[in-house]
Specification:
With 282 residues, this protein is mostly helical. Helices cover 78% and strands 0% of the residues. Among the domains are: 57 residues, no CATH class; 81 residues, Tetratricopeptide repeat domain (Serine Threonine Protein Phosphatase 5, Tetratricopeptide repeat, Alpha Horseshoe). This is Tetratricopeptide repeat protein.
């Protein structure tokens, strides 16, 4: 009898331990699956924000954030994908919700300012940037600060912010181009030309800077193309821009010559240059 009782107790204990082990095992599996799902969700979000089609990314984050409204990261993803899809107007209210959250970051506030700038709300963008501590120093923040200062015609502040932004990135071509365009609008053509040249040295594929440097030279009545890398089609387009600059300066014969050269240089039919030349000759 005593032996039977011990066997029963042993079996009961073994079954109890087995049940505990099963519960522990189930919990471990649940935690592991949760971790895997979290990793998969983060990876999918990263993919959607980088390589996925912008419209598909918007659809994904709209659905995901609706299903998980407590997850701020999904709202961020939605706002970023809306901006990427060229729908900044829709992104602004989403960013406003994000920056109101207790766990919002200064990066979120910078992104709100960017969305506001894209929608032409410069004063609100200025306010959004002013809400960020001056100790938060990033390339994007200072690039936006420079653009806002430009819009307010605060030239000294703009130059200071552009200079800081250039020093905070290893790829300054776009901000150098913006800085150069700022100088161009102020009538400082020589300085604008220098900044556009710096932008091209940093990114030889940046056609906007190539076109802008030609505008700066044309404004100084310098109608020769700069010595910069350019393909044949680009050369034709730059000659066309230079021709239009000559028209603006009243140098009509020079403009006609440049437009003729643009038409001859282009590997295909250059309709825009043809129309410009016909307008001058008529």
């Amino acid at each position: 009898m005593r032996h039977s009782l011990l066997v029963t107790l042993g079996l009961t204990t073994a079954l109890g331990l087995s049940a505990c082990d099963k519960i522990r095992g189930d919990n471990q599996v649940d935690r592991a699956m949760s971790a895997v799902n979290a990793i998969e969700d983060n990876n999918l979000s990263d993919i959607m924000l980088t390589v996925a089609d912008a419209g598909e990314a918007v659809t994904y984050f709209q659905r995901a954030s609706a299903e998980n409204p407590e997850k701020l990261e999904l709202k961020r993803g939605l706002a970023k994908s809306l901006v990427r899809a060229g729908r900044a107007t829709e992104a602004v209210p989403v960013w406003r919700k994000v920056v109101k959250a207790p766990e919002a970051t200064n990066d979120d506030r910078v992104d709100l300012a960017e969305a506001l700038i894209r929608t032409g709300k410069w004063d609100e963008a200025d306010e959004a940037l002013d809400a960020i501590p001056p100790t938060f120093e990033t390339f994007k923040r200072y690039r936006l600060e420079a653009m806002v200062a430009d819009s307010n015609q605060e030239w000294d502040k703009a130059d200071s912010f552009y200079e800081i932004a250039v020093g905070l990135t290893t790829r300054p071509a776009s901000v150098l181009n913006n800085w150069g365009y700022s100088k161009l609008t102020r009538g400082d053509y020589a300085e604008a030309e220098r900044l556009f040249a710096d932008a091209i040295r940093n990114d030889q594929t940046l056609f906007t800077a190539k076109n802008n440097i030609v505008l700066a030279r044309g404004a100084q009545r310098n109608y020769t193309l700069p010595v910069i890398p350019m393909e044949q089609t680009e050369k034709a387009q730059l000659l066309h821009t230079l021709g239009l600059s000559a028209v603006k300066q009243g140098d009509i014969q020079t403009a006609k010559s440049l437009l003729h050269e643009a038409i001859e240089t282009h590997p295909q039919h250059f309709e825009a240059a043809v129309r410009s030349l016909q307008a001058l000759e008529s």
